[in-house]
Amino acid sequence: MTIKLSIIHFDIIHKELEQNKTALLKLINQAARQGADIIMTPEMSLSGYSFNSRQDINDYVEEEKGPFLQEITAMAARYKCYICVGLASCDPLTEAFYNTAFVAGPQGMVCKYRKINAESRWACPGEPKQNNTFTTPWGKIGILICSDTYHELMPRIVALKGADLLLVLANWPPAGLDPVEIWQARAMENGIMLATCNRTGQDLNMDCREAESCLINSNGTVLSRCSSLNSQILHVGIALINGRLDNRARVKRLADRQPGHYHDCYRNLSGINDLTSFLSLPKPGNLSIHCLVPEPTEGLLDWLKANLDKTTTNSPPSLLLLPSTNYCAAQLRSLANLAYEFNFWLFSAHADTATCYLFEPNGKSRQWNLSAGNLPMVNVGPAKATIMPFAALRHPELAVAAAKQGCDLIICSEEQYSAELKLLSGVRTINHLAVAVCTTNGAGIWMRPEGHQRWQEEQAATGQSCSFDLNTSLTRQKRFQDRIDFDQLLLQTS
Questions:
Q1: DSSP 108-177
Q2: Are residues 164 and 193 in contact, defined by beta-carbon separation less than 8 angstroms?
């Protein structure tokens, strides 16, 4: 059994309200007549996106019981479907303007969600505790708008509320950071299906002619996608299990959450200009990070000694990451001696015991058992580093909590390199930190994105190495979206 989702990839004409209404209603009616169970439109479908002030957008907002929404509600009742539309709306009591998603169902208006990561020139941000989910015969569905999904805690809260399908209304051009990668990561890290309805055409300040709408499954695979110069309806089927949306991936992914480790998420650092002083962090500077992936036929220590000259040519301090292996006591002593002799930090882990090791240039060494839930935070030269297994990095809360403790670098322990590891490690850098991982079959270093650009990354395959110079003065410049329902996030059970 399947349900039919119709995504209206719409060419929105900026400030042409009536023209957009006529065209959009025709497309919605077409989708409904073709048997759609759920219909989506892009963000701000009637007005276009770019406005400079309240005065600029004043003539293009829709009242919450306005004629367009009344017509949408009547169509949803007539065709017994759910219609989700994105509009600039006006609150009738306060006259505040919002970027809003409305959902009409067979029984009337069932959901209203106001974008939290709202446009600062004219829009009031939505409340973090608003209900952005609605119940259908197939299960619970959630709503977010465009750059809300840039901030990982917002999709996570939708999943915690029990939604197995997330609808995202967007005006997101493909320049710089690829939104599809963000949406893949949000589906993957929460174990939910995610559908995005983007737009096409040119807005006042954005070129969306190559923007994509898509349906992504719970493991991050894009099942269907659409990019078109003209308006187009993307029809996709969503398979059900016993008449319900599949919740198995979400339940499994959320089962190993550890909310007791997430409390630093709620820290408010918005008024702190100097994180180094406020959090007593190491003096910022450059840390040269190297990941080494030897051939499996070579002895790790022999390969390391042979390649040290090649990997430590940059001026110190340096951090070397090695893949996990089954170390004996003598090998651990050798690693400590190498770190001391060549004046670098060296990180590795024991493959079977989940014990990780950090050897310091001064000859000292430290070890932690990550299976016990320890997430150590240590100074590595000019960097504050957090060490965690990839199972922990899968949960977005931990990266936010680490960043709010001043973390510059996450050192991740994992045995195998994978597409999931690569994508989620890159996405975590949105928290203005770096991530480094070294495994037996690959390695990667990911650095925070600049502005709206994609994060930087260096990768290595077996028999190779990769390196990156981390400037921790950049990772101290952090900014967070704190309009978050932290009560929901920190509940011990979901």
A1: EEEEEEE-SS--TTTPPPPPTTS--EEEETTEEEEEEEGGGGGSTHHHHHHHHTT-SEEEEE----SSSS
A2: yes
- Residue 91 resides in a domain: yes
Give the helix ranges, DSSP H, for 343-418. 390-393, 396-404
pLDDT value of position 313: 47
Q: What is the pLDDT of residue 311?
A: 56
- Which one of 201, 221, 255 terminates a domain? 255
Task: Based on the fold, state whether residues 19 and 167 are members of the same structural domain.
Answer: yes
Within-domain flag for 482: no
- The two tokens of residue 485 are 């329902």
Instruction: Single out the residue of 178, 227, 235 nearest to residue 199, CA to CA.
Output: 227
Within a domain: 175: yes
103: containing domain: 2-255
Indicate the number of domains in the chain.
2
Euclidean distance between CA atoms 178 and 199, whole angstroms? 15
| List of the chain residues with pLDDT < 70 | 297-299, 307, 309-316, 372-373, 492-494
**Residue 134 phi, psi (nearest 5):** -145, 155
Distance (Å, whole) CA 318 – CA 469: 9
